[in-house]
Amino acid sequence: MSKALFIDTSRCIACRGCQVACKQWHGLPAVATRQRGTHQNPPDLNPFNYKVVRFAEEKTAGKVEWLFFPDQCHHCLSPSCKSAAQSFAPGAIVVDKKTGAVIYTEETAKLTADQCKEIQQACPYDIPRRNDATGRLTKCDMCVDRQHTGLPPVCVKTCCTGAMNHGERDKMLAMAHQRLEVVKASHPRAQLVDPDDAGVIYLVTNPKLALQRPKKEAVANYSRRELLGRLTAPFRHSV
Amino acid sequence: MTNHWIDIKNADVVLIMGSNAAEHHPISFKWVLKAKDAGAKVIHIDPKFSRTSARSDMHVPLRSGTDIALLGGMVRHILEKEQFNREYVAQYTNASFIVGEGYGFKNGLFSGYDPGAKKYDQKKWGFASDQNGVPRRDVTLKDPRCVFQLMKKHYRRYTPQKVSAVTGVPVRDLLKVYEIYGATGAAGKAGTMMYALGWTQHTVGVQNIRLSTIVQLLLGNMGVAGGGINALRGEPNVQGSTDHCILWNSLPGYLPSPTSDQVSLEEYLKVNTPATREPKSVNWWSNKPKYVVSLLKAWMGDAATSENGFGYDFLPKADPGVDYSVIFLVDRMYKGQIKGGLVLGHNPAQSMPNSNKVRKALDKLDWLAVAEIHHSETSDFWRRPGVEPKKIQTEVFLLPSCQRGEKDGSITNSGRWLMWHGKGIEPMGQSRSMGWMTVEIFKRVRALYAKESGAFPDPVLKMDWPQDYDADAVARKINGGYTRDITVNGKTFKKGEQVQGFLFLRDDGSTASLNWLYAGSYGPAGNLGRRRDLAQTAMQARIGLFPNFSWAWPVNRRILYNRASVDPNGKPYNTAQPVIAWENDKWVGDVPDGPAPPMALPGGKYPFIMQTEGMGQLYGPGRVDGPFPEHYEPAETPLKAQPFSAQLSNPCLKTAQSDMDVLAKPGDPRFPFVLTTYGVAEQWCGGVDTRNAPLLLEAEPQLYVEMSPELAKMRGIGNGDPVVVESARGRVEAIAMVTVRITPFKVLGKTVHLVGMPFCFGWTTPGAGDATNRLSSSVCDPNVSIPEYKACLVDVRKAEKVTELFV
Within an 8 Å CB–CB cutoff, is residue A15 touching chain B? Predict the structure, then answer.
């Protein structure tokens, strides 16, 4: 039986303990960021952030809604990224038998930039990011190293509210359905995101707002100066 | 906290006000959400919609500095709708006490006000006593001079319409909050109040808390599971450091600091030890002499004798009426009256209000030693932007201090639990613990005195001081022990044995303890702060009480005033979640507030044992600015008049007087917006530790100012634009965060805009921005001199050029 994560966003307080713990466990360096009028930082997933808590807000009829979405790889049960990589480099993307985690190996460095783009486009959740310096594709590995020694993924370990949960897939699925029933009483639009296809099951209270993503060309919205700054910014605070 | 973190889960209603609990105390939300799972309603009342609001059932935005108006309206509602617990109010609070003829309230002022001194004659507010000196009472609560009736009269003025006009909260939202929270007055229901600096950092800070206690007492929420007044203390060990007297006006264990007119120990004890003739009152503070003498004995050792008042004569004394708190300390520094300073784990040049003044004050010092983990805005004040280092004459020392994991020690958490931790790794480089620094510095001062002598050398030379710093030895001494062989309560103890608890402390010099509250934490059974045992009884399990996990002061009591959780016969008000119960002639459950039987039985005692008369204080004549909390505007207010009285701001508020302590006028057109300041989850306090943690700086990299889309439009500001925020005292650059989470307020028919800024960013982190506190003022609450960080006036405009931020 494979493992699963259940991420109950109705319990998330966006403390970002998971985002930071993930970087710490994986030894990822800090990236230079700027305040851009939102708490969401870094702005998006990148080769050094396998996990980013997304913030979305709106005010309707005088009522404010502020949603938090700890975004990461969904660890699909039939990963389309793996299928896409299969013909390019068979060992680049594998599934860990013990946990069901989808793992990007060192062999992703053998992929060309164009092949990586194809794999990225195959992902329904826009997760994989290419490290142009190493040529490797990167993303959440479900802390497979921790799991093999009996420890929960570090994001789950650090979560204090019960938003992040980890366990046997059937247990997580049952927990997700049970919570959905409860949450629906106060959030009628609540739903689970692809519970039957993903190893990471999200519960979202307002799917439209929670799952909206800035358009990819958003980067063009940066001023020229900002864009240049971003491209040339050294890793000022790198560890 | 009167209760503790886990206990929040027992609440039927969680009222979070003056706190952004989810961001600043994330662990609290583990328990808030558990309460919610069990059906509790969670209400968040705060100027901005935060991550706390996002997880609450209801967010009610109020204009910063108007909490008393909102809660005053709640008191009115509770009394008018009779939501209060009548038995509790009549039997356990001073509602029935008759107030003397001297008390009065008119035009926003209580009787006895001296406008010249800006002070009240508090003697005017005393109770009317009978021939035995016991306050007269009317338990029917009908006497027009009883506290209950006076309170009713006072808060009758707080109509929902007036409260709404001042706070900016619509009447329907007020009534909804009042109805939901007032419902916890029913027996068996509990409401908890979670607060933090959003209540304390105002010129009415103490009265904010006072009013919350009035609400909790009326509703019978004190002493019960899921109730209480719960100050969310911080990870910087606010609880522990306050217990051990970080403030100038107390000695360890909340004993008052002596003043120079208290010339002997006898006189000090006479002035500070309360007496009562009420036989059912425990009046716990009558034990004060035992705690004071044991403290002196611990400080002075063999040099403490009955002849020298156990070393009382060696103690520094404050001059009566002089304020030694940090705002006034900085003021004296600014005026050149202070030569040097030791700053340990504090960053005043960044986190104190009016920080431009603080920075200039540091320039006046001959020398400064800062103990810190990183360079801070304080340690490096001499090279701050705009200053020529060569012109600063101060000699500065940085003492590298080690981190928590590098030393043994303890933290006392908000629930008063003593949490011991062991050293994990050796300190990096030459860094040392601050305990080591303190011991070594004093040893060297002592050597100088021994060699060169000096004025009044005895206190320095005779103090009982260790040769080497040892955290365990300090913990043992805090608990205290016997200084000679002695027989107490029929039992004989040997010199050097640890005392079992504060019941064993004595006023004859035979015991020594550095803090009576912690007596029992490290008795003969060892350091109980190390315990991690989850064993509990079935009764304790029902309320999440773990008596064998760590140790809580006092005497391992987990819920304070728990004798008020039972009726006068000892039967729990909430039978499903009892804290204590009187069964078979003894108490079961939590450690009760004293072993005496319940109040109605022979030998029974009143529940509020720390109060002289044994009653919860609805009427509080001990506060310098009035026995009932009254709404006053912040020192800087957008209003020229307020509807509750002609008295605009707190008549007793304190402020430093200097050319840099300028305030905007009420309704000042130059500074039309309210600024409130706060922390942010990813940065810690003034930010020195976390700004130097790259992964946290990545998540919250730069100073921002949150504002409503309406205000942004009015000022032509776009989301993410650099802006300038200016007050009468300073100018700060920040990035605009335009958000629907900030909403304009309708106040007295006009729109009032509020903006909010974190205070954690400083110039030592390049391009992150500099101290928000250059904007705030050093105006203070008159009781405890806490500054009004939470409300001042500013203007905001789009920046043409920025120098403080990387953009």
Answer: yes
Assess whether B70 and B211 both reside in one domain.
yes
B472 assigned to some structural domain: no
Tokens 């920025």, residue?
B802
Q: Model's pTM, two decimal places? A: 0.96
Residues B67 and B207 in one domain: yes
Torsion on CA atoms B21, B26, B31, B37, rounded to nearest 10 = 90
What's the pLDDT at A23?
98
* C-alpha closest to that of B529 among B549, B547, B554, B507: B549
Chain B touched by A184 (CB under 8 Å): no
**Residue among B33, B680, B698, B765 with most chain A CBs within 10 A, to mutate:** B698
CATH number, position B144: 3.40.228.10
- Mapped onto helix, strand or coil, the DSSP state of residue B110 is strand
B77: nearest Cα among B195, B160, B173: B160
B172 touches chain A (CB under 8 A): no
User: Of the candidates A19, A37, A57, which has its C-beta nearest B735's C-beta?
Assistant: A37
For residue B49, give the chain A residue with the closest CA. A64
Interval B352-377 mean pLDDT: 98
Q: Which residue of B has its CA nearest to A9?
A: B55
B42 contacts chain A (CB < 8 A)? no
The answer to whether B11 contacts chain A (CB < 8 Å) is: no
Residue B211 in tokens: 């009013």
Both B141 and B178 in one domain: the answer is yes
Q: What is the Cβ-side half-sphere exposure of residue B160, based on CA atoms within 13 angstroms?
A: 13
Q: Is residue B37 scored above 50 in pLDDT?
A: yes
Cβ-Cβ contacts under 8 Å, B6 against chain A: none
Q: Quick check: B702 and A238 CB within 8 A? A: no
- Residue B29 is part of which domain span? 5-231
Give the residue from B231, B266, B295 where a domain finishes.
B231
Identity (one letter) of the amino acid at B107?
A: N
Model pLDDT for residues B303-343, shown as the tens digit of each residue: 999 999 999 999 999 999 999 999 999 999 999 999 999 99
Q: Which residue of B33, B54, B698 is in closest CB contact with A41?
A: B698
Q: 3-class DSSP state for residue B516?
A: helix
Task: Please give the tally of structural domains in chain B.
Answer: 4
The answer to whether residue B88 sits within a structural domain is yes
Q: Are residues B293 and B419 in the same domain?
A: no
**Residue A228: what are its φ and ψ, rounded to 5°?**
-60, -40
- On whether any CB of chain B is under 8 Å from the CB of A228, the answer is no
- Answer whether A37 sits within 8 Å of B29, measured CB to CB: no
Q: What is the DSSP letter of B116?
A: T
- Would you say residue B758 lies in a domain? yes
Kindly report the nearest CA distance between residue A227 and chain B, in angstroms: 11
B457 with B501, same domain? no
Could you report the predicted ipTM of this complex, rounded to two decimals?
A: 0.95
A131 CA to chain B: closest CA distance, Å?
18
Whole-angstrom Cα distance, residue B784 to residue B623? 10
Residues B223 and B368 in one domain: no
- Asked whether residue B585 is domain-assigned, the answer is no
3-state secondary structure of B17: strand
Of B461, B489, B507, which closes a domain?
Answer: B461
B302 and B336 belong to one structural domain: no
Closest residue in B to A17 (Cα) is: B682
Q: Identify each DSSP E strand in B242-339 by its residue range.
A: 250-251, 255-256
Domain identity same for B287 and B342: no
pLDDT digits (tens, 9 = 90+) for A168-204: 999 999 999 999 999 999 999 999 999 999 999 999 9
- Summarised one tens digit per residue, pLDDT across range B91-127 is 999 999 999 999 999 999 999 999 999 999 999 999 9
CATH of the domain at B792: 2.40.40.20
Q: Distance (Å) from the C-alpha of residue A57 to the closest C-alpha of chain B? A: 8
- A206 in contact with chain B, both atoms CB, cutoff 8 A: no
Assess B700–A contact: CB distance below 8 Å, yes or no. Answer: yes
Contacts of B801 in chain A (CB under 8 A): none
CA pair distance A1, A223, nearest whole angstrom? 50
CATH (domain of B431): 3.40.50.740
